[in-house]
Amino acid sequence: MDLLIYQQLIIPRIRINGLCVFRNIFILLLVSLPPLLAMANPTKKDNYQLIANVLYRDSATADSYVLERCRLDLYYPVDAKDFKTVVWFHGGGLRAGNKFVPEQLQERGFAVVAVNYRLFPEVKSPTYIDDAAAAVAWVFHNITKYGGDKSKIFVSGHSAGGYLASMIGLDRSYLRRYDAQADSIAALIPFSGHAITHFTVRAERGIEGTEVVVDGLAPISHIRKDAPPLVLITGDREMEMLGRYEENAYLYRMMRVIGHEQTTLYELEGFNHGEMANPAFYILRDYVKEH
């Protein structure tokens, strides 16, 4: 009953590129038409398989921490052909967290690749960004073996994971090291990710989290007209962590200024930094389905 859940999660409104969008009337019409809901949620499910803890770096040169953290889970529809794939990076401030396949993305006709990466303080920047790039490159080089289409790879994540998605998709240099192309990503869909230099990167340098830094480790430093489509999603600007909405709003504005017309900004009113992920999954799912 996704449409009913969607109503509960994001009513009364979402701001899309600053414009308020109301959904009540449309959803209520669907609520009154059970057959349509049944059609939108068929009972038949694809057969899915989970391949866990795949090492995405070279084992010959890996130390113990690489062997522990540089692993991914592949959850895919085994009977499907040319399926889409969502690469998902967990949050945790680049200091904590573990890979998981979000329940909201399971059995939706596409694959999910959930990624672990090395964390501060065991490593420092840009190691965790490089790990993210290595994982996405693994997907580009291997997804066809499982039936996927490498031209349909979407990269997403929440908080620190959103930051990683933006960095490897906007700064071409990271994926290029692994013989993959950032411009081949179908879309970047960061959930409440930093657009400026991440607060953990700043902490590594002894800089307070309230001091703004924009350098080569800031996604907004790599704006370009020819970047992949960019779908920015944040929580309520009054409830988000620090100025996360405003960072993303500036990234949105500058991408549009330079001519990148496929940049969209969603503000989920009434949801804080942690809560916003749940409704954001519905935006991600709709985007992947339609593109």
Description:
There is one protein chain. The chain is an alpha/beta fold and 291 residues long. Strand 8, helix 8 and strand 9 (230-235) form a beta-alpha-beta unit. 33% of the residues lie in helices and 21% in strands. Helix 5 crosses helix 6 (160-170). The protein contains 10 helices and 10 strands. Strands 2-1-10-9-8-7-5-6-4-3 form a 10-stranded mixed sheet, sandwiched between helices. The chain is globular. The chain has helices spanning 2-10, 24-31, 34-40, 64-69, 127-142, 160-170, 173-176, 199-204, 244-257, 277-290, and strands spanning 14-16, 19-21, 48-55, 71-77, 83-89, 111-115, 148-158, 187-191, 230-235, 263-268. Mean pLDDT is 89; it is low at 1-12 and 22-44.
Beta-strand content: 15-25%
Helix content: 25-40%
Strand order of the largest sheet: 2-1-10-9-8-7-5-6-4-3
SSE pattern, N- to C-terminal = HEEHHEHEEEHEHHEHEHEH
Separation of termini?
Answer: 22 Å
Compute the number of helices. Answer: 10
Structural class: alpha/beta
C-alpha Rg, in Å? Answer: 19 Å
User: Largest sheet at a glance?
Assistant: 10 strands, mixed
Assign an overall shape: globular
Overall number of strands? 10
Arithmetic mean pLDDT:
89
Unreliable residue stretches: 1-12, 22-44
